[in-house]
Amino acid sequence: MSRVLLLTTFILLLTMLLAGCAEIRIQPIEDTPTPVTPTATEFPTSTPVPTNTIVWFPPTATPRPMRTPTLVPTQNQLPSLGKALLTEDFSSDENWQTFRSPLGNAVIANNELTLAIQSADSGIASYSSFPQMGDYYMSMDVSLSLCSWNGDWYAVAFRVENSENQYRWVFNCLGQSRIERVYRGRIYVVKDWEINGVIKPAAPQKFSIGIAAQGSRLRFYGNDSLLFDVEDTIFSTGGYGLVAASDGYSPLTVSFSNFKITEIRE
């Protein structure tokens, strides 16, 4: 090999050696991400669940008074009536007992017979002097001015033999009525207390009554409506009376007018 070739080869090898020892720079690969614009994330709004307010003492509805069922009177059952046998307009006191006493008063005025008890615990009565009869229809008007105590009552007596023997239609201040037989001074109930659509509780009020007495059958009417229909055989004839009684807690005043006895044709 010639010297020139050797020298050239040597220089080439030396150049390659020096090139291999040069600084090798390692450039990291940078992965630059695409910028992302942050988006506001909407979180669901929490809606509070309504809480029931606890009412420890709730208001209570005002209780209503209990109502006793009202009986509906039967209409248009008056007996067939004939001629008037007796009429009393209470223009004078010659046919009835009248008095004034600490127990109460029985007074006729303004075409009415009024029984009044102011403050006494008592019972009073006024009986008529009319002839006794057996079968008839007796009618009259009742005006109640004062009546508030449930123990007070007033009554129409019929087929009266005396104060200890008679029938009575009794009314109290609660609007109830019943049929009694007073026999030898003792009271027997023929028809017990009932209410109806005619007679109201307390006063003032006005209504008409009628009693059809035929043998043992006794029918009782209020404002021309049949209220009671009963049978009793003890008294078959007698007179008439008006009665009132009070426990003395409050005044009682009741008036009677247009008293009439009429023949029954049935």
Fraction in beta strands? 35-45%
How are helices and strands ordered from N to C? HEEEEEEEEEEEEEEE
What's the shape? extended
Q: Determine Rg (CA atoms, Å).
A: 54 Å
The parts where pLDDT drops under 50 for at least 5 residues are 20-70
Distance between the termini: 178 Å
Tally of strands? 15
Kindly identify the CATH topology of the domain at 81-264: Jelly Rolls
CATH superfamily name of the domain at 81-264? Answer: Exo-inulinase, domain 1
Percent of residues in helices:
under 10%
The helix-and-strand class reads mainly beta
How many strands, which pairing sense, and closed or not: the largest β-sheet? 9 strands, antiparallel
CATH A-level architecture of the domain at 81-264: Sandwich
Secondary-structure blueprint:
Elements: H1 3-20, E1 81-88, E2 99-101, E3 104-109, E4 112-117, E5 122-127, E6 136-146, E7 153-162, E8 165-172, E9 177-183, E10 186-194, E11 205-214, E12 217-222, E13 225-231, E14 239-246, E15 252-264
Antiparallel strand pairs: 1-15, 2-3, 3-4, 4-15, 5-14, 6-11, 6-15, 7-8, 7-14, 8-9, 9-10, 11-12, 12-13
How would you explain this protein's 3D organization?
This protein is mostly beta strands and 266 residues long. It has a domain at 81-264: Exo-inulinase, domain 1 (Jelly Rolls), CATH 2.60.120.560. It contains 1 helix and 15 strands. Strands 1, 2, 3, 4, 6, 11, 12, 13 and 15 form a 9-stranded antiparallel beta sheet that branches. Strand 9 (177-183) and strand 10 form a beta hairpin. It is extended, with a radius of gyration of 54 Å. 24% of the residues are buried. The model is unreliable at 20-70 (pLDDT under 50).
